[in-house]
Specification:
With 223 residues, the protein is mainly β. The protein has four helices and 16 strands. A hairpin with a 5-residue loop joins strand 1 (2-6) and strand 2.
Length: 223
């Protein structure tokens, strides 16, 4: 399997499959493909179907298998970028709705925040998507992807909605904004998310929630 990501700010990942190779995606994600690639749909059991729905994805998974060499494409649903994350037996957590497609022996399940405060106030919620195994996961990024490798004990302070992915070794918590004037007039809210290493994290530059608020300001409203 080979892939290339094209399209700039309106990206698409185009995957080249050899005969017998397969790629998985959520229902309705395929954009185009060459002939000779067949689709099969499965849920993997009620537990997995429910888990995917809770984590912001469709209940069903489509598997596309090439009977002959060909190409299949998956376009992003929002202006931004697509990031290919390689798994080599490790586990990652991703924001809800980030999953686009995967190749290889990748297991998708629910990732539950261990920290109650982080779940309530960290902006990512208690439920994230968990991916483990061996292969490649293609994630949708809102805007551009900025990556960091955090050392043990190193902490990154992140505003709500900017965390896309983190290794399972990274701890997500919250930090209250200090100072009454900062809270009331700083425009950053009451809490920030803290990500503590060790582990790899991916941040995004244009969360959908922030974009929606900016657009909302310019929509005419009745008095």
């Amino acid at each position: 399997m080979n892939y290339r990501i094209e399209g700039g700010n309106l990206p698409v990942v185009i995957i080249s499959l050899d005969a017998g190779e397969s790629v998985n995606c959520e229902s309705g994600s395929m954009s185009w493909m060459t002939s000779g690639i067949e689709m099969s749909t499965s849920g993997g059991g009620l537990g997995k179907m429910f888990g995917r729905m809770v984590s912001g994805e469709s209940a069903m998974i489509n598997t596309y298998t090439a009977n002959q060499p060909g190409e299949i494409a998956f376009a992003s649903s929002f202006p931004g970028s697509i990031k290919a994350v390689e798994l080599n037996g490790n586990t990652i957590l991703a924001q809800k709705g980030a999953y686009l497609a995967s190749f290889g022996n990748v297991e998708q399940s629910i990732g539950v925040q261990k920290n109650m405060g982080g779940g309530f106030f960290g902006g990512e919620g208690f439920i994230m998507q968990k991916f483990s195994g061996t292969g490649i996961v293609f994630l949708e990024i809102d805007g551009s992807a900025i990556e960091y490798d955090l050392a043990a004990g190193q902490t990154m302070i992140v505003d709500t909605g900017y965390t896309v992915m983190m290794d399972s070794t990274v701890n997500l918590d919250i930090q209250m904004v200090k100072g009454v004037k900062n809270v009331l007039f700083g425009g950053e809210g009451l809490f920030n998310t803290t990500l503590s290493g060790p582990g790899h994290v991916i941040l995004q530059t244009m969360p959908i929630s922030s974009t929606a608020m900016m657009i909302y300001k310019y929509i005419p409203h009745k008095n």
